From TrEMBL:
It is found in: Plastid, Chloroplast membrane. GO terms for cellular component: chloroplast; membrane. InterPro entries: Phytol/farnesol_kinase (IPR039606). Belongs to the polyprenol kinase family. This is phytol kinase. Its main location: plastid. It is a multi-pass membrane protein. PANTHER family: DOLICHOL KINASE, PHYTOL KINASE 1, CHLOROPLASTIC. GO terms for biological process: vitamin E biosynthetic process. It comes from Coccomyxa subellipsoidea (strain C-169). The chain crosses the membrane at residues 39-57, 77-95, 101-122, 143-159, 165-183, 204-226, 232-249, 261-280.
Amino acid sequence: MSCLGCFDSTKLLGNGAQLLETGSQQASSVLLVLQQNPLLQDVCATVVAAAGAIALVKIFRALSSRGIVDQKLSRKLVHILAGPGFALCWPLFSADPNARFFAAIVPCLNLLRVLALGTGVIDDPKTVNAMSREGDKSELLRGPLYYVVVLLGATLVYWRESPVGVVVFSLMCGGDGLADIVGRRLGGRHKLPWNSSKSWAGSGAMFLGGSSMAIAFIAFFCSMGYFECDIAAMALGVAAIAAVATLIESLPINQKIDDNISVPGTVALLGFLLRSALLAA
């Protein structure tokens, strides 16, 4: 019985290895077909990116509706993760010049969805709760709408050709999103002198979170060969831009101008002005 068991185990392991090898060969064949057909590759990448965006919202909608994650925290986690999650899908697209337009379909679909939810064309209270502060659908026509417009702009204008786009969505997602979470929990006693609704903890989190995300994405895209860069120089440029964007986000103008407009706008302007000196690709 012992020898028979050994024989069966060996046979089972052999079959498993054969299945893995077959699966690997099939995966390689699929990748080869996609690489030889940019249109098919871009269509598949669009489907994957869109599915990921939908899944992210559904996951946090479920967590929020079941009381596992606080509504405000859920909204900010979606804010932090949606942009970089989408950007992580960019390498899936082909090198074809039109690939950016396929990628732009994803934020376009999200834009239409936000408009439909915000205007009441689609009645989905759970999703509205996951994406809004107070569960009011009209809120989606402000911050969340500006958010997807910025992602759309970063995709079409910068794509994988400029680190400025990376800094734009990193400061908006990783910076502004983290600032709210940290500020609410740690900034109660240490408010900024010029804005009592903001805190030193929140501003520090925005600077560190946004700049760290930007540098990480820049290093990642450089390693993928999308643009050449000096990481040290890039880090200095990112830090300078992040510092100014953090200051802008901390000003009382946020009561009139949404952070999803002021922060990306500031970053885009500074990126344009400092690109040759600090963010040279």
